[in-house]
Amino acid sequence: MKRAKVNQNINLNDYNDIWVIGEQREGKIHPVTIELIGEAKKLAGEINKKVVVVVAGYEINEEVNKLLYYGVDKVIYLSNPLLKNFSTDGYSISISNLILERKPEIVLVGATSIGRDLGPRIAAKVGTGLVADCTMLSIDPEDKKLLQTRPAFGGNLMATIICPINRPQMATVRPGVMKKATHIDRPTGVVEVVAPAITEADIVAKVVKIMKSSKKTVDLTDAKIIVSGGRGVKGPEGFELIKALAEKLGGEVGASRACIDSGWIDSMHQIGQTGTTVRPEVYFACGISGAIQHLAGMSDSKYIVAINSDPAAPIFNVCDLGIVGDLKEVIPAMIEEIEKNKTFEI
Ligand SMILES: Cc1cc2nc3c(=O)[nH]c(=O)nc-3n(C[C@H](O)[C@H](O)[C@H](O)COP(=O)(O)OP(=O)(O)OC[C@H]3O[C@@H](n4cnc5c(N)ncnc54)[C@H](O)[C@@H]3O)c2cc1C
């Protein structure tokens, strides 16, 4: 496929619309797409722009149509058998050529494993910058540029970054950080099907086989209840208690990075700045001190319960209910109470 040329002398006024790069895996739209649509709609309202979702794939028409029910103006469906499964080359060439042709002003990408691969490659191909792992996006009220905020210096300060001279303004956002767009009954948007002219030769790295991990995966981003353990659980066996409470409540198990670094539990359970960002209905922080990097991933939880033996632990400054005590005594007492009452409503 012929690569479109990067134009260095750009006129900022030529750029319009806010694009969300939608993500699909095995034909199913990833929830981060809906979160990015929610954020794109918020930004679009401030600068009076249209929201467009771009999804690459093949034979996923039904799933693509569903995106209109989140109130977007348009879905551009890049349809080609070579785009059925994600490939860095196929996706980045198809999407960057579309960007160079249509000139969106803002492009949002999910900071998933696919998005982290795709985002920088698109940015390089179209000759712009990219701010990775943003936790907040807003519009500068004066010059209408995108303000892209993310933690910097180990989470000790928040940096707001702008892209002043190149376009589009590109950002990745981690799953679970932004609120999902609301579902609507009567969509007014349209789907445009575009067939990118990519060939086998464009895709240098070939997908030979897709193998699913045999590990049980944890769904932290969509969990309503999360019970997390920290260094206060004292070892891998301490997580048995955390798992028992999570099971009783129908929740998932989370952990602080200290436990992952000590090899007590798999990294897929890590919550925080370098782990997963969560916003459950109830978050139990058990034996977790409340370091800023941990708070970065869970402080938007609706209701936070902290169990800690140190009454001065910083977690008590952010929790809704604080229990000062030894988790080895408090958690079994909670489990006993739940078993007695057989109810736990949220
Ligand atoms: C760049 C960078 C990124 C990071 N990213 C993350 C991240 O994504 N997620 C993350 O979690 N951390 C992250 N960290 C690490 C973070 O700074 C903290 O070191 C970590 O969160 C501490 O984990 P903790 O609270 O479990 O351990 P500690 O800080 O050691 O706290 C243990 C707590 O357990 C309590 N306790 C002890 N015994 C008991 C008991 N029997 N019953 C009840 N309470 C008890 C103690 O009072 C204490 O408050 C990051 C650090 C850096 C520099």
Automatic annotation (TrEMBL):
Query: Per the annotation, how and in what number is the cofactor bound?
Result: Binds 1 FAD per dimer.
Reply yes or no: does the keyword Flavoprotein apply: yes
Tell me where on the tree of life, at the top rank, the source sits.
Bacteria
Keyword Secreted among record annotations: no
* Molecular-function annotations in GO: electron transfer activity; flavin adenine dinucleotide binding
Residues reported in the UniProt entry to bind FAD: 231, 256-257, 270-274, 287-294, 308
Query: What does this protein need as cofactor?
Result: FAD
> Which stretches make up the Electron transfer flavoprotein alpha/beta-subunit N-terminal domain?
18-207
The alphabetized list of GO BP terms reads: fatty acid beta-oxidation using acyl-CoA dehydrogenase
| InterPro entries in the record | DHS-like_NAD/FAD-binding_dom, ETF_a/b_N, ETF_a/FixB, ETF_alpha_N, ETF_asu_C, Rossmann-like_a/b/a_fold
Q: Which residues form a coiled coil?
A: none
Any Pfam family the entry gives = ETF_alpha
* Keywords of this entry: FAD, Flavoprotein
Which SMART domains does this chain map to? Answer: ETF
Q: Which family does it belong to?
A: Belongs to the ETF alpha-subunit/FixB family.
Q: Which PANTHER family match?
A: ELECTRON TRANSFER FLAVOPROTEIN ALPHA, ELECTRON TRANSFER FLAVOPROTEIN SUBUNIT ALPHA, MITOCHONDRIAL
The name this protein carries in UniProt is Electron transfer flavoprotein alpha subunit
Query: Can you name the source organism?
Result: Alkaliphilus oremlandii (strain OhILAs) (Clostridium oremlandii (strain OhILAs))
Q: What is the lineage of its organism?
A: Bacteria, Bacillati, Bacillota, Clostridia, Peptostreptococcales
